[in-house]
Design goal:
390 residues; alpha+beta; binds adenosine-5'-triphosphate; binds magnesium ion
Amino acid sequence: MSAPVIPLDQIIPEAQKVIRHLTRSGHKAYLVGGCVRDLLLGRSPKDFDIATDATPSEVRELFRNCRIIGRRFRLAHIIFGNKIIETATFRANPREEDENAPGDELYIHRDNVFGTAEEDARRRDFTMNGLFYDVEPGQVIDYVGGLHDIKQRSVRTIGDPNIRFREDPVRLLRAVKFAARLGFDIEDQTYRAMITHRADLQKSAVPRVLEEIYRLLRGGAAVESLVLLREVGLLTELLPELAGRLEERPQTLEPYLHLVDQGVAAGEVPSSGLLLVLLFAAELQALFDEETAARVRDPLALVDEVLGPLCARLRVARRDVERAKLLLLAQRRLFQVRKKGGKIPTSLLHREGFTEALALHGLLYRVARQAEGAAPSQIEAELSAWPLPR
Ligand code: ATP
Ligand code: MG
């Protein structure tokens, strides 16, 4: 027997347990999706998902620690303390393959048809995400050419990209996310279809789109994501205000995103509020400048004016907008403290969100000084001289 493709110790014991119990009970059960892709790339997966031919009811019969979730498509969550192993029954693409379907008819409104393992692989978005891993023999099951594309480091839709992007335009953003995060190229036909169908993004459910925007920004490759979004013309669809500004002033976002990527690489998780602030840092500049900040009479009105249209359109959660405001208002206090060279008042230190407000302050300061041409070592020296807890 050949050695397993993925060493067993890379697969968390809980996932192994679920697979073993299902297979010993006569079912097929494989690791699937992002975890197989990441393990093959030598990255550590965010979560371990399982696909099986057991129905949700059958899964529930087999596991006491099981909860069935979802109304439309029922999934089993098998719970081990704070770890959850998502176990889904193989399902098929509910749409008949018909390339000539007019307009909206490709859009998938429901997603609840059980299927075979092969159908389950084929309904997935990109070939690298369509692999199964059969743990016991230690073999990858590849119905979609995913192994080849992972080796080539290529993002390719499963099947005709012109169909797959129209079925679910959120896949446009997922293609950008994977290409940016993994440093993959986007295969030619897939890339051309992204350009052709970029306007379809408007048909997607707003909360899904917003969630993907946050993921792109928080995923550790925000700079590369922005480059790709602009290249494909998706930024105009997503954030027209921002796209317009970057046409005029191209360098007004990347320096911030660069620092966000560095923070994420160091284990930070920027809040959605912070991300909103950074997207519009250029428009909010008056609030950050020592000279002008004091002159802005009603900072909250400025924030509403700048962030309002976007937040309304994308239905940004109220708590995220509040967080953005809190972070912005704290900047004024921080500038004052710094100017006077005093210590931060303890009252401020213990305020909610203060640590992140301080992080934002450092970030704004770095970008401002970089723009003035200060050397990185100089900037860091200035920052460590602040009378601020760091
Ligand atoms: P991440 O590491 O960001 O979690 P992932 O590949 O695990 O990446 P998920 O969003 O967790 O992505 O989805 C899990 C799997 O479900 C994917 O690998 C893919 O096979 C499938 N999938 C997710 N979203 C879609 C979609 N919009 N269309 C088709 N298949 C999808
Ligand atoms: Mg995942």
